[in-house]
Amino acid sequence: MLGTLWLGYTLYQFKKSPYLHPYMREILSDCALPIAVLTFSLIGSYGFKEIKMSKFRYNPRESLFKMAEMHSQSLGAICSAMGLGFLLSMLFFIEQNLVAALANAPENRLVKGTAYHWDLLLIAIINTGLSLFGMPWIHAAYPHSPLHVRALAQVEQRVESGHVYDTIMNVKETRLTSLGASILVGLSLLLLPVPLQWIPKPVLYGLFLYIALTSIDANQLFERLVLLLKDQLQTAAPNH
């Protein structure tokens, strides 16, 4: 777990190092997570194969597209589900709009206009179908959506008042990356049970820690908290 986190975050920060060509540093930084997962999956599968670890629970005889049997539920259960579903829809509404606002922040320099109402309509339609088959819901989530924007951005480092800032120059606004990621997620079902069961669960825990750690990169709230621990006389004036 910690090895996956260490290797992934080290490669993620490699773009700030003086080694190799800038293009190579950028590639290593962008591919930090898959490199870390593949490396420690091989180490865990072959170096520690004598240690028994839990794997994905997978039943090949169970249908993935089995519609929920709502008719078998009592009236009280259906009413309770409707109440919980209303609260869940409020959560989706709030998180979707907050994350969309963060992704469309002025500092990201996005050119194409927003479509908050259209996004909510599509999410409602898609999640209705997913609910009928008991599948996980989808919506814009933090930190994935802002990190997706940053991954498509061209970033330059600028020095102001002795402090180095990462400034987004432009963003390649395209839907192909999201479409490609969704297609790959669907195709990952073909990798069950092998080779996905070869990925140890500690590697997945390290993956989640990596996502949490990289989400605070350039986070103003985190930077403000860090300022409380710094010597104000030795710290350059921040931009916030």
UniProtKB/TrEMBL annotation:
Q: Which InterPro entries match?
A: HCO3_transpt-like_TM_dom, HCO3_transpt_euk
Q: Which GO terms describe its cellular component?
A: basolateral plasma membrane
Task: Please identify the protein, giving its name as recorded.
Answer: Solute carrier family 4 member 11
- KW Cytoplasm (keyword) present: no
The question of whether Oxidoreductase is a record keyword is answered with: no
User: PANTHER family, per this entry?
Assistant: ANION EXCHANGE PROTEIN, SOLUTE CARRIER FAMILY 4 MEMBER 11
Membrane spanning stretches: 27-48, 75-94, 114-138, 176-196
Q: Which GO terms describe its molecular function?
A: solute:inorganic anion antiporter activity
* Pfam families xrefs: HCO3_cotransp
